[in-house]
Amino acid sequence: MINELIERMLKGDKRATARLITLVENDEEKAREIVKKIYSNTGRAYIIGITGPPGSGKSTLVDKLIKKARDEGNIVGVIAIDPTSPFTGGALLGDRIRMQRHSTDPGVFIRSMATRGSLGGLAKATNDAIKILDAYGCDVIFVETVGVGQIEVDIVKTADTVVLVTVPGLGDDIQAIKAGLMEIADIFVVNKADKEGAEATMFELELMLDLEKDKWQKSGWRPPVVSTIAFTNKGVDELWGAINEHMEFLLNSGKIKEKRKFRVREEIKAIVSSKIARKIGEKMGEDDIAVLIEMIAKREIDPYSAADLVLEKALGVKV
Amino acid sequence: MVKRSKVRVLIAKPGLDGHDRGAKVIARALRDAGFEVIYTGIRQTPEQIAESVVQEDIDVLGLSILSGAHMVLIPKILKLLGEKGIKANEDVLVLAGGIIPPDDAQELEKMGVGRVFGPGSPIEEIIGFIDETVPKLKKFRGES
């Protein structure tokens, strides 16, 4: 079944492509088999991450950027992520609403994904879904994260160019110098620039970047700050220009290789952690864990030693 | 029972009426019941809906129509799905809601709509119907 789906996907069949994405989302074993079989067909697509707080206009910007990418003849993939409820496991995925005009364009493939327990701003199977869209033939893939706060920075491990979308009025200049999200952007966007305070926000970001002169002098890239009003398309040409400039910078400086190696390293780490977690689940029943918890509660053992016991039992080696 | 969080539901409003309160209430209730719901909003063309079903690899398609155009729009959507190799009741469960007279509902169910839910249908009934019907789809029988 998987071989047939892959064959159809490589010929450009959207339904087979969609089904493969479902398989990598639902089934780790199948994900492994699929990725193994398509891996040699991946690595061509340029991946653009769009992140920022909820309601900042990410989906609307993606809608406009799809248009720019299509005008230049690219085949475009979009992965739009929204949160899964930690309480019910349900999700409401609503990013697609803003992009529906592209639905019937044969050169666009849009897929909504739910986080399904992942906390870094992406869905658990995002990286595998990207590989599938890459092998399917997308030249450009936009990955829209969930609405993020300060620390959901997984997109930096996934995208070639990270665009951070913010809006006026979210806070003062102290917010702009905090660690986390503000450190990962290759391009800053101040969207809804017709709102009060837009100029101040632009200014604060520029000021923050000026303070980081050492960092970007070393890297060779000073993140630009672009002002947009996504709804009216204002500033979208400039943003697309900035994305292209960053892409050229990565390609010309050879930094794209570094970036992609970093990505692979992070991916291996994630796969190893997830495998260990699964092994523990297989080897240790709820009862075993309950016994340990009881021992910890009675102060017979400490949590670190308990963790060592869990790992020993799961992996069969002393850690 | 198929795990609800692995069942993907698309809620769409075809046609020109802009009354989406009902569709949103259903989308929200299915989310709370643990389904993965994709909401595409109002004024969708049959082509957009059929293409979304493909790209999102949907299991349940919920169509909300209050304009009276259901006998035009729903058959059109079923036809477009068929052209893409997607059969109602085999590959995807199609549900309809809104103001649909009983005679029309009967006819739509003959064409492949799984069930028509009129105004006032209890949400538990819709959820129960999905839980009961989805395991019969090819995807969950492991056939495709």
Short account of what is shown:
Chain A is α/β, with parallel strands linked by helices. In chain A, 49% of the residues lie in helices and 13% in strands.
Give the key terms:
heterodimer; A: 319 residues; alpha/beta; Rossmann fold; 2 domains; 12 helices; B: Rossmann fold; five-stranded parallel β-sheet; 5 helices; 5 strands; 22% strand
Task: Describe the model.
The complex is a heterodimer of chains A (319) and B (144). Chain A is α/β, with parallel strands linked by helices and 319 residues long. Chain A folds into 2 domains: 42-253, Rossmann fold; 268-315, no CATH class. In chain A, 49% of the residues lie in helices and 13% in strands. Chain A has 12 helices and 8 strands. Chain A has helices at residues 2-10, 14-26, 28-38, 58-71, 126-136, 173-176, 198-211, 213-219, 236-253, 255-283, 286-297, 303-315, and strands at residues 46-51, 76-82, 91-93, 108-114, 140-144, 161-166, 187-190, 225-227. In chain A, helix 1 crosses helix 2 (14-26), helix 2 crosses helix 3 (28-38) and helix 2 (14-26) packs antiparallel against helix 5. Chain A starts with a helix and ends with a helix. The model of chain A has no long low-confidence stretch (mean pLDDT 93). Chain B has one domain: Cobalamin-binding domain (Rossmann fold), CATH 3.40.50. Chain B has 5 helices and 5 strands. Chain B has a 5-stranded parallel beta sheet, with helices on both faces. In chain B, strand 1 (8-14), helix 1 (21-32) and strand 2 form a beta-alpha-beta unit.
| Total number of strands of chain B | 5
Please tell me the overall pLDDT of chain A.
Answer: 93
The name of the CATH topology of chain B is Rossmann fold
Amount of beta strand of chain A: 5-15%
The shape of chain B, in one word, is globular
Q: Which architecture of chain B does the CATH hierarchy give at level 2?
A: 3-Layer(aba) Sandwich
Report the radius of gyration of chain B as a whole number of Å. 14 Å
CATH architecture verdict of the largest domain in chain A: 3-Layer(aba) Sandwich
- CATH third-tier fold name of the largest domain in chain A: Rossmann fold
Distance between the termini of chain B: 18 Å
Tally of structural domains of chain A? 2
Q: In oligomeric terms, what are we looking at? A: heterodimer
What is the total number of structural domains of chain B?
Answer: 1
Residue windows where pLDDT falls under 50 for at least 5 positions of chain B: none
Helix fraction of chain B? 40-55%
Which chains share the greatest interface?
A: A-B, 28 and 33 residues
Largest sheet of chain A: 7 strands, parallel
- Could you spell the SSE succession of chain B in H and E letters? EHEHEHEHEH
Q: Tell me the strand order in the biggest sheet of chain A.
A: 4-2-5-1-6-7-8
Please provide the count of β strands of chain A.
Answer: 8
